[in-house]
Amino acid sequence: MKKLVIYFSHTGENYMSDGIRNIDKGNTEIVAEKIAAKTGADLFKVETVKDYPYDYYECCAEAKKELQSQARPELRV
Ligand SMILES: Cc1cc2nc3c(=O)[nH]c(=O)nc-3n(C[C@H](O)[C@H](O)[C@H](O)COP(=O)(O)O)c2cc1C
């Protein structure tokens, strides 16, 4: 049976134990890769048409707006 790990993960500025800093790979992507490697699954990264702000606080504000409006951002195909 074919297996597929589908994930959505945020890069750019993120909140970490040492403060807000840039990351090239999010925790979800790291875990998705580990699951795929262990299970032999393919990987599929969900990406939105619109890019989210790099700035941590701007990105949080955008995410809050989307939550409140129950937004369903268009996905890149
Ligand atoms: C308040 C707060 C503190 C966080 N602290 C850490 C941390 O210390 N280490 C870490 O790897 N991720 C931490 N995270 C999570 C990352 O910001 C985030 O999971 C990851 O970098 C990217 O997101 P993803 O889950 O979309 O892949 C924290 C998140 C929040 C909201």
Could you explain the architecture of this structure?
- The chain has 77 residues and is an alpha+beta fold.
- The protein has one domain (4-68).
- The protein has helices at 27-39, 56-68, and strands at residues 4-7, 12-16, 19-23, 42-45.
- The chain has a two-stranded parallel sheet. Strands 2-3 form a two-stranded antiparallel sheet.
- A hairpin with a 2-residue loop joins strand 2 (12-16) and strand 3.
- It is flat.
- It starts with a strand and ends in a 9-residue tail after the last helix.
- It binds flavin mononucleotide.
Write the layout of secondary structure elements.
Layout lengths: L3 E4 L4 E5 L2 E5 L3 H13 L2 E4 L10 H13 L9
Parallel strand pairs: 1-4
Antiparallel strand pairs: 2-3
This protein binds flavin mononucleotide (FMN).
Flavin mononucleotide (FMN) binds next to β2 and α1.
In short:
The protein is α+β, with helices and mostly antiparallel strands and 77 residues long.
Biggest sheet architecture: 2 strands, parallel
Which segments are poorly predicted (pLDDT under 50) over 5 or more consecutive residues?
Answer: none
Q: Which strand order do you get reading across the main beta sheet?
A: 1-4
Count of individual helical segments: 2
The total tally of domains equals 1
Please provide the ordered H/E string of secondary-structure elements.
EEEHEH
Distance between the termini: 24 Å
The unique ligands bound to this protein are: flavin mononucleotide
The coarse overall form would be flat
Helix and strand content put the structural class at alpha+beta
Question: Could you tell me the mean pLDDT?
Answer: 97
According to DSSP, the number of beta strands is 4
Measured on Cα atoms, how large is the radius of gyration? 14 Å
Oligomer: single chain
Fraction in beta strands: 15-25%
